[in-house]
């Protein structure tokens, strides 16, 4: 910049000196200097006007050819223009590749602007959500009116995907997942999971039907075995086999009942019932059942500092509470302490079962709610568990907007806690 200023000043001096010599020769040196200044300023204004006209016309074509400092400025603009054009071409090429690649995806991709308005979508999303070109700029909730999706779209704390029927076709199931970025912008991924949904429904129906059909023969077998054992007419060598058959029949019956309960939880509506369940009474009932299973081998206590009414299904809540308490009895050594507690705070209500049992290695905790998952298969068979208890607890919590947390270390016992949100609770004192 300094070199350009010096060069322009030198040109001005040359012009001024030329007209000064002319002025001195003619005796009109002041007039000569004035003409030199006027010509120089006129020339600069002319170049500036040409450059300003080029800028006003949107910089169409190359910058105007000029001399002096304006020529150098024109050259700089020309170089910037060429660089911008190359970068723009690269950007367009990249954008075309991105659009081509997203157009080839089977998953639908929808870009959302501020307020959840449609900005762009690939052909798969257009086909799955029945979007047309003229829909751009409209709110997505105009096309996906499900209340669950409206909550999912506006709640930034929602985790995981959402499954909904496709617009205009309830037989097709879509999985939607939102990724937020930038300022109030989001990317919606849409997948067609109809086949997976149908396979999962077939599995649920199969388990439910088979479990239901097994109940009758198991009841008949158990009845005959109990009759033979209680009659006293069975030969002595048959008494132990009869007892073992009765035990295994009972275990099989428990497994079938758990499978039926789990199938019902999976296939029923997501929201739970509207009963008002007194937590204190429920805990005392569960504690009695745990003491009955323990037979005095454990020290079981109940700590309910702030009683409350929990809105939901009484039988399902009892199943969840009891599963945790009975598991603590099964996996705690004789003489161990088991504490059932209930607390309230600003985040909601919390039921926990703390034991002094064998504990669980942290690597197993993420998989505890899987069906039939065993941390120690041999010990689980000895305890008579079905391997479905925590899976039932998980589905009960899903229907009651709750969460499960586990804190455990090998040899230090475990704490299983059920967390319920505030809107599910009512103070017992209000009733």
TrEMBL record:
Q: Which InterPro entries match?
A: BphY/WalK/GraS-like, HATPase_C_sf, HATPase_dom, His_kinase_dom, HisK_dim/P_dom, HisK_dim/P_sf, PAS-like_dom_sf, PhoR_N
Q: Which PROSITE patterns match?
A: HIS_KIN
Catalyzed reactions: ATP + protein L-histidine = ADP + protein N-phospho-L-histidine
Per UniProt, subcellular location reads as: Cell membrane
Q: Which residues form a coiled coil?
A: none
- Where do the TM regions start and end? 12-43
Q: What is its EC number?
A: 2.7.13.3
- Domain of life here? Bacteria
Q: Which UniProt keywords apply?
A: ATP-binding, Cell membrane, Kinase, Membrane, Nucleotide-binding, Phosphoprotein, Transferase, Transmembrane, Transmembrane helix, Transport, Two-component regulatory system
Q: Which residues form the Histidine kinase domain?
A: 209-424
NCBIfam families, alphabetized: phoR_proteo
What protein name does the entry list?
histidine kinase
Q: Which organism is it from?
A: Microbulbifer aestuariivivens
Taxonomic lineage of the native organism: Bacteria, Pseudomonadati, Pseudomonadota, Gammaproteobacteria, Cellvibrionales
């Amino acid at each position: 910049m300094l070199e350009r200023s010096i060069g322009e000043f030198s040109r001005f001096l040359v012009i001024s000196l030329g007209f000064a010599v002319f002025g001195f020769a003619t005796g009109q040196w002041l007039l000569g200097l004035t003409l030199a200044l006027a010509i120089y300023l006129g020339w600069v204004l002319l170049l500036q006007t040409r450059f300003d006209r080029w800028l006003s016309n949107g910089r169409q074509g190359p910058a105007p050819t000029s001399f002096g400092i304006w020529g150098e400025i024109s050259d700089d603009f020309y170089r910037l223009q060429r660089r911008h054009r190359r970068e723009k071409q690269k950007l367009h090429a990249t954008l075309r590749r991105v659009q081509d690649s997203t157009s080839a995806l089977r998953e639908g991709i929808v870009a959302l602007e501020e307020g959840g308005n449609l900005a762009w979508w690939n052909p798969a999303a257009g086909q799955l959500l029945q979007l047309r070109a003229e829909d751009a700029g409209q709110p997505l909730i105009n096309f996906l009116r499900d209340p669950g999706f409206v909550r999912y779209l506006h709640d930034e704390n929602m985790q995981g995907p959402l499954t909904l029927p496709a617009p205009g076709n309830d037989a097709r199931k879509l999985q939607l997942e939102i990724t937020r970025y930038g300022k109030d912008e989001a990317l919606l991924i849409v997948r067609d999971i109809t086949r997976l949904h149908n396979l999962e429904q077939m599995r649920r129906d199969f388990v439910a039907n088979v479990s239901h059909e097994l109940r009758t023969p198991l009841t008949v077998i158990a009845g005959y075995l109990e009759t033979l054992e209680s009659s006293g007419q069975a030969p002595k060598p048959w008494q132990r086999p009869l007892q073992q058959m009765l035990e295994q029949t009972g275990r099989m019956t428990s497994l079938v009942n758990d499978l039926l309960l789990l199938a019902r939880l999976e296939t029923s509506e997501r929201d739970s019932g509207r009963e008002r369940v007194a937590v204190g009474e429920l805990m005392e009932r569960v504690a009695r059942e745990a003491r009955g299973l323990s037979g005095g081998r454990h020290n079981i206590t109940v700590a309910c500092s702030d009683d409350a009414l929990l809105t939901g299904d009484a039988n399902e809540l009892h199943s969840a509470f009891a599963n945790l308490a009975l598991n603590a009895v099964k996996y705690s050594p004789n003489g161990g302490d088991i504490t059932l507690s209930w607390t309230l705070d600003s985040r909601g209500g919390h039921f926990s079962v703390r034991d002094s049992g064998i504990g669980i290695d942290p690597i197993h905790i993420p998989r505890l709610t899987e069906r039939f998952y065993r941390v120690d298969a041999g010990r689980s068979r000895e305890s008579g568990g079905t391997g479905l208890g925590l899976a039932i607890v998980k589905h009960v919590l899903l229907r009651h907007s709750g969460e499960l947390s586990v804190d455990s270390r090998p040899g230090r016992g475990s704490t299983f806690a059920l967390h319920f949100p505030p809107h599910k609770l009512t103070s017992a004192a209000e009733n």
